[in-house]
Amino acid sequence: MGRRAKNKQPAPADLPEPRQTGGAAKQKLQKRNVPQEDRKSLKRKASGPVSLPKAVEEPKSKAAAKPKKAVKIDPKPTIKHVDTAKAPSTLKKTKAKTAAPAKDSGKSAKAKSHSHSDDEIPSVDDVLASLGLPKDGKLSERQRKKALAEAERLELLLKSQGYSLDEDEDEDEEEEDEEDEEDDEEEDDEEEDDEEEDDEEEDDEEDDDEEEEDDDEEDDDEEEEGDEDEDEEIDDDRALDFVDGEEIEDEDYAIINEEDDEEIDSDEAYGPGEEEKEARVEDESLDDEDDEEDEDEEDEEEDDEEDDEEDDEEDDEEDEEIDEEDINDEFDVDANDDDLETDEFGADDEDLEEEGHEAVDDSFLLPTVEDEEREKQAPLDLQLVHMRIQEIVNILSDFQRLAQPGRSRADYTERLLKDIQTYYGYNEFLAEMLFNLFSPAEAIEFFEANETPRPVTIRVNTLRTRRRDLAQKLINRGVSLEPVGPWSKVGLQIFESSVPIGATPEYLAGDYMLQAVSSFLPCIALAPQPNERVLDMASAPGGKATYLSALMQNTGCVFANDSNKARIKSLTANVHRMGCKNVVVCNYDGRQFPKVIGGFDRVLLDSPCSGTGVISKDPSVKTNKSKRDFILLSQLQKQLILCAIDSVSPKSATGGYVVYSTCSVTVEENEEVVEYALRKRPNVRIVPTGIEIGRDGFKSFRGKTFDERMSLCRRIFPHAHNLDGFFVCKLKVDVMPKGPAHGSEEAPEETVFDDAQDEQIMQRSRERQTKKRRVVT
Ligand SMILES: C[S@@+](CC[C@H](N)C(=O)[O-])C[C@H]1O[C@@H](n2cnc3c(N)ncnc32)[C@H](O)[C@@H]1O
């Protein structure tokens, strides 16, 4: 993507997620903001087989649909026998043990019922029949999905048994299918008409795509200069303290959401990228164009939806010129005027179970030690690993019924963790740490989401412009965009742009910041008031500090501090560019507050962290974070949070708040840090953040119990919200209660870390900082 925004993701979540934990499949959707096609595809996801984790089976975006390591699924594989001795086979089946020929080693009962020798090449009809599907080529969407899933399984199985899939024969079958289709078409004139129309539209779309690609190539050259500038800034930021996981967030324009799977009313999309958006929606649905032709006539609901889409496309073509008034109206829309309709994924849960069990292969066996050894020797087979992940997740979801006798949950989990490391590329420690946050199925969704970039978003700088004015200017430059959601009046999601978003005149003039939506949240939670004194303790490169400045309408004072001198440069540059006149930039170790200056009305501690919430932007996190890093980080975070608390004036007339946030999802860096602060500072309590999205913070985790009000904290997850992973906690600092233990109403002049270990770590860090400064100066 380079610096050019090419974002084909669905819009960020704009619906408050119900405060409940549980799989994404149970989250509510907001119909109003979800394009119809996306909604449709979501429903399909919810009704997919249990055995195929949603995110893996049905990637939610084009990017996810083509993961580096994804299995290419041929919907109509044909089979050719090859030398089985050469094929590694670690996916072991009970049946395979008894009969040597691959034909008896089918994975599912259905697959088993269809054995194939060298001479027996099954037609698609045979396969369909074996699956109980109609032979006339007219499949409902669900049936088609099922067929595809079975085909994938069959393909993988056959591969593991030494078969190869021959593309030539595949083409023959396609021809056969086409002939069948033609027959069907003759029988039904009406259908034929429809299909002709479809064909024309598809051709148009294909042409459009080709033109787009050409344009892209041309534009790439033109953009090079701007890209270089921006890259410079970003590199600068990345060459930073290991503890910082977020510089990328702000510079890399991140944002979000797949989530909620909600979509944007077609009326809400603006700009010349409308067609592209349609294409985006089509990419995300699992249908390809051919599949649309195969839509089952009897499936009235889906046909209706398709008709609607066709109408929309026609409308879009007609409405090439954007009505400025409409745009202005849209950008004036008040958050409250949204009719939020929700849709429960839950409704499909039953189907999901049923279908999952149908697809379950209860003969899956964990590899033995010998199998594992053999697998180690053989070339890495990611398809095999991927398939085993799905099998194990499925078994863990119904362990009593599906587990192999004599095998424990731990056996399966151990294998699964190894496979996660192999397939997604995490180190052992991090794979386990992240895995433990979720159910096995949801963990896979999380890992999968980390393979997909989040949407590009910008924050409008209200010190310089209004959102609708900026939107209009960018639209005129060929940018396709829309508001991020009703909960933010300053966020815009960029879908497509013919100019580099980080180098437009508006960007250079400070009209906006490239900023992930998640990183709006701590500022919204802090809610600084005009004329207050606010400290942003770890602020470079200034995404949040400049937002705080804007929220305070350039009044009062924001102390934007960061311990990293190199990052101070980009912080200062952003402060100037964004026209923030109420910001003082300073360069201290945060732990020197409040000694340097205290008595703030509010303090934001957007803490240095591991960055496990932004792995899609910085995949190096997968391998470069060790147990030791987490220990050190957690210590630093605990020290910083105490300093943040002690820098707030409990007597502030308007404030007295601290917001602690990280772009990490681990409990060690979040709930545990807050719990530590509550223990050390009894004058502090957790209060609501005022953020409408996200899940509750954990009240307990793996045997540890946290403060009851920890649920008021917000947790944002990439797979659930299509936003960067984030944690936000708001604390109210009260006057210290009088008593033998505390004695004083005032915050201590110098924060005391009563832990000898803390002191040692601080000392080491100070020395490192001093060394770094020496190198820089
Ligand atoms: C997550 S980033 C902050 C991003 C910033 N809030 C923004 O919105 O642009 C964490 C920052 O903490 C800084 N940092 C690391 N250790 C620090 C310390 N001991 N005191 C102050 N800042 C520190 C890093 O240099 C990094 O810029």
From TrEMBL:
Domain SAM-dependent MTase RsmB/NOP-type: from-to ranges: 446-734
Molecular function in Gene Ontology: RNA binding; rRNA (cytosine-C5-)-methyltransferase activity
Localization per Swiss-Prot or TrEMBL: Nucleus, Nucleolus
Listed GO biological process terms: maturation of LSU-rRNA; rRNA base methylation
Pfam family, one: RsmF-B_ferredox
Keywords: Methyltransferase, Nucleus, Ribosome biogenesis, RNA-binding, S-adenosyl-L-methionine, Transferase
Homology family: Belongs to the class I-like SAM-binding methyltransferase superfamily. RsmB/NOP family.
Alphabetical list of PANTHER family matching this protein: 28S RRNA (CYTOSINE(4447)-C(5))-METHYLTRANSFERASE-RELATED, NOP2 YEAST -RELATED NOL1/NOP2/FMU SUN DOMAIN-CONTAINING
Official protein name in the record: Nucleolar protein 2
Native source organism of the sequence: Malassezia cuniculi
